[in-house]
Amino acid sequence: MSKLRKTFKYRLYPNRAQVVLLERQLVLCCEVYNAALQERRDAWRMGRNRISFPMQSAQLPLIKGDCSELREVYSQVLQDVLHRVDKAFDGFFRRAKRGETPGFPRFRSRRRYDSLTYPQLGFSLEGNYLALTKVGVLKVKLHRPLEGTVKTLTLKRECGKWYALFSCEVETAPLLPSDKAVGIDLGLESFLTTSDGEHVENPRHLRQAEFRLVKAQQRVSQRKKGGNRRRKAVRLLARQYQKVRNCRKDFHHKTARELVQSYGFIAAEDLRIRNMVQNGHLSKSISDAGWGQFVSILQAKAEWAGREVVLVNPRNTSQVCSRCGAHVSKPLSERVHSCPICGLFLHRDVNAARNILALGRSVQVKS
Q: Is 185 designated active site?
């Protein structure tokens, strides 16, 4: 039985003094991140040898001696900040070698540095209380049991609320084998359509919350910049967007779970969403559907349950007849597939889902 990493997220309830202390640590870590990034940028421009994590980590004790404020932060949390900088540059060099847009690492704003990570030590969980070195004891709401071996702990600030994210190593729990296979076609009219002819309604979470978002945005624009009332309005707007994200993610998890429990093999589209959102008429609806997040959740749940998910090229899956293979051209507005060769008549998304399943099976046979 294999082991995988699984993250458990719980709500934290720090008191006012602890909130001030945590936000102070975020500011200090942000300053360390930007300083480490600046050192590497200077070395890069001057053509010196690349600065590594061990080199910067060895400087931390000296920096603490000069800046006593950094002693307020647990030592391993500071080391994790340097790990983040190292990962940012590793990603930059990897993308540059592949010929992709590299995206040089950028400085972080204090408002956008929102997490502290304890890689190994410095924390302990006892009942409904989390003890943190340099912070104290915080109340935590364990709405579900913690499983496996805790590897890291991340404290995250989201819209003025604090959360504890435990990354645990947990043994997988495979489901009973299943011979059932399905192809799924992702869309906007229906969120997804299966090759069995089932349609899952598109909830359109962003569209449903648009009125509330507009009102919240108007409230922000009416407030004076730099004032407390504007900061409060911004926080309320962020919570409205957070609610939309949470609803969308909950829908994705439930839909993916139903598919994984029902089918042993799932074929889905490998969509190029970045290219698709260039369409100004459909970009908001595509982003609202969140296809990329759904596919990632589906793959993770399938791996956990011992199922197989295959991504296939969606090119022409809605234009080819799933029975005879004839090419039947039709615009996007035409929602029915009618083949003049074999007489197949069905919904165009069901036809596409059947083609996706056939492509997925061919990939499965080759592998």
A: yes
